[in-house]
Amino acid sequence: MTREEQTAAFRQRRAEMMLGGGLDRVQAQHQRGKLTARERIDLLVDSGSFIEQQAYITGRTQDFGMADRRSAGDGVVTGSARIGERQVFLFAQDFTVLGGSLGEMHAERIAQVQELALKTGSPFIQINDSGGARIQEGVLSLDGYGKIFRNNSLASGVIPQFSIILGPCAGGAVYSPAITDFVFMVDGVSNMYITGPDVIRTVTGEEITHEELGGAAAHCGKSGVAHFRFANEQACMEAVRRLLSYLPANNMELPPLVDCGDPADRETPGLVSLIPEDDKKAYDIKDLISEVFDRDSFIEVQPDYAQTVVVGFARLAGRAVGIFANQPKVFAAAINIDSSDKAARFLRFCDAFNIPIVSLADVPGFLPGVEQEHGGIIRHGAKILYAIAEATVPKISLIVRKAYGGAYICMASKALGYDRVLAYPTAQIAVMGAEGAANIIFRKEISAAEDPETRRREKIEEFRRSVMDPYTSAGYGFVDDIIDPAQTRIELIRSVEMNIRKREDRPRKKHGNIPL
Ligand code: HXC
Asked: What pLDDT digit, counting tens, does each position of 170-227 carry?
């Protein structure tokens, strides 16, 4: 071959490679309402920044007619790219090649970029669209999954890892996304399940569609497996880029400081009237969040799941923080099994990646009930205590209204490790609410009174004034300052800044044993 012929052959081969499984399969992918692996990468990363790794890999298995099948890249595209200021490593499974199924060399490509991400301290993003373990390759595929799961686990807490589910993700394949930090899903495109509707029909007789079983609504609202849900792939990729901009590249770095365009000395007078005078009345904690933190900076994590707590990232004077808040609008903010899991996992992510924690407390306690007790609220609730106690990042708490019992300890206890605790003048801090407390400790006095109901009300008020008010806790040093709600933004910014250089060691150990 002449040099010209070689170059032409190279170009032809390259062009074919870019088409993955070929034009027909690309069209079929589009007809399903899905983008191809390369189109997805283009949508996600900065234009022209993608560098492909091991581009010419093909499968080695020859059995079952595999030698004759088109296997560009062995069904996955891997490499590195820039997203904003940041280098990332990534892969996108290519459903047009053997259904994106995972064989030996497919896994080899993925494992290599995972290892490069870890060595270079770069975030890792995986786009899943796959029929699962490549059936023709048997145990080689299972070995490949093993490598990937191991790398996901080793990278956990070292680099941020995101999973974007944009197609089927079935069987054991779901466990790689489950190990990563955040799972993104798109309505009508993403599916995750251990066994699909057919197997379920055979085993249990239940009838269910793919979407109902493992779609974005199921995992973002019911199972808690996924964190973010979108209407289309474009909106999903935009959200991935945005979330990444709040995070450090790895656990040795601090989150980027940005110019937020929202003054640090902005007062928040609207908060004076936000909290209802009647302490049983609901309000939306997200109104407080949007008033206090940098304008439009809040990214809520798992907004549709376990809504008695609200968690997410926001900025305070341009600095990323993690918000852990009670939501009085939902079940009076009582913490339950699912909200414990949601909060603890979020708090541990913040701690791993040097993101200060800001807790906003308005909580009557843990949710009572047989279902909760037998479901293990003790074990699950303990995760929050554990996560706060082990976190070494700055931990700031604001007691907005109620902080009772064990839930007070989760949200605002200096003994557990909060560095600075603030409270509104109307905050109530106690073992339990005034009514319950007065009924127990003044029971005899109330029943002996001429007018028990009036005496009961007097005792409740007395308890509220003398025991629950924030000055009592401040007198013990458990509250550092009682603040004017109009100063909330200013005070929180000052509180985070004064603790930002915090260094705290823990006893040496292999790792803790969080109650899972
Ligand atoms: C090999 C596969 C494959 C697989 C799909 N294909 N899955 N090839 N191994 N696991 C191939 C198909 O044969 C087909 O090739 C092409 O990909 C496209 O698949 P279709 O079925 O035509 O697409 P669609 O109708 O959209 O259905 C997609 C699907 C279905 C729902 C994913 O293909 C399916 O159910 N696949 C099997 C899923 C599965 O059971 N995987 C194993 C899970 S267990 P041709 O050439 O005919 O077009 C597992 C264990 C992991 O993964 C354990 C890890 C610890």
From this structure: 988 899 999 999 999 999 999 999 999 999 999 999 999 999 999 999 999 999 999 9
What pLDDT is recorded for position 100? 95
Domain annotation covers residue 254: no
Residues 96 and 221 in one domain: yes
- Computed over every residue of the chain, the mean pLDDT equals 95
Q: Say if ligand 1 is within 6 A of residue 164 CB.
A: no
CATH number, position 186: 3.90.226.10
Which of these is catalytic: 72, 333, 387, 407? 407
The catalytically annotated residue of 157, 171, 188, 405 is: 171
Same domain, 162 and 92: yes
Tokens of 341: 């899991």
Q: Does the residue 398 lie in any domain? A: yes
For residues 210 and 283, membership in a common domain is answered with: no
Tell me the CA distances in angstroms from 50 to 38, 43, 236, 370, one per residue in order: 10, 11, 19, 53
Q: Are 182 and 243 in contact (CB under 8 A)?
A: yes
State how far the Cα of 404 lies from the Cα of 164, in Å rounded to an integer. 39
pLDDT attached to residue 277:
86
Determine if ligand 1 sits within 6 Å of the CB of residue 199.
Answer: no
Domain range holding 491?
Answer: 271-427+479-499
Say how many Å lie between the CA of residue 360 and the centre of ligand 1. Answer: 46
CA of 211 to the centre of ligand 1 (A): 17
